[in-house]
Amino acid sequence: MVPEGLSSLWRFAFSRFVAVGLLNTVFGYSFYALLILLGIPRLVAVTIAKIVGTLFNFRTTGVLVFYNRDNRRLWRFLAVYGLGCPLNVALLEFWCRLVGTGPLVGQALCLPVVVLFTFLMMKTFVFRQDSTHGADAPEAHQRHNALLQ
User: Fold this and answer.
1) How confident is the model at residue 91 (pLDDT cuts 50, 70, 90)?
2) For the chain, what is the domain count?
3) Is the pTM of this model over 0.70?
4) Which domain covers residue 88, as residue numbers?
5) % helix, strand, coil for the chain, step of 5
6) Which of 14-18, 59-63, 128-132 has the highest mean pLDDT?
7) 4: pLDDT confidence band, cut at 50, 70 and 90?
8) Could you give the CA distance from residue 129 to residue 142 in angstroms, rounded to a whole number?
9) What is the DSSP string of 122-145?
């Protein structure tokens, strides 16, 4: 079972978003770092890592943060990542070419801006509650809360 303090925190969507965001960030950055260490050029590595990380992120964010398993939202999610990828690449190039950081530090410096942009778009565009998809349905909250007790 989950300790009482963690169980209380998990009930808040923002806490879930932060926890799942950390999981997704570790996954995505680790995958990117692996590609860099394998000798993949940084622009190719960041693009591949973004694609793989996006699919992982869609599932974890939809299910764990917004209690939404609707795969039809993938297109909205991909649209957000379609906008986030060039933002990420532009920031990475700024840090690496203009500031002179290495690709690992450069990508780490990109994360806060890219994460904030992505969160705002997910909340307002991808997983917003509407009558056709039922995100944040009370039944889903009850099921997840029951698992925590």
Assistant:
1) very high
2) 1
3) no
4) 4-148
5) 80, 0, 20
6) 59-63
7) low
8) 17
9) IIIIIS---TTT-TT-HHHHHHHH
